Amino acid sequence: MEAGVAEGTLFTYFKTKDELMVELYRELRMEFSRHLTDFPHGESARSRLRYIWDQYLKLGAAHPEQLKVLSQLRSSGKLFKENETPAPAFAEVMKATHDAVQGNELEDGPPEYLVLMMRAQAEMTIEYILAHPENAEMCRELGFKMVWSALTGK
Q1: Of 10, 75, 102, 127, which has the most beta carbons under 10 Å away?
Q2: What global pTM score does this model have?
């Protein structure tokens, strides 16, 4: 991705490269939240997670370059938990995940870990769909079934 401005201009707004990376990461995460306009708040945990799954796959497939940048930023080691402002979508994923695991052996698992597991499965699904678009619908379904089964044991 290119900013479309001179490097010197970027550092008028950001003191360091790390600060720029954190802000870019935050903005890309917020972009996802802006696409959740009809989130099914009152629905079951399964319906809420399925909605997020479908939206994440749709956006990831439509904007694979942004997904790649997010992945690179996460693996950079420059993002620190205290610098992250949770995106509204993250709070919804956390709540739906918490609701999904109530009463099973994952109930005491760290919710952040469970969300990371779901994101990893979603990103692998997007990667496969981009390489094999003819299998998109089957992979979307299978991927979510795997996530739901992992979370609920069902």
Answers
A1: 127
A2: 0.78
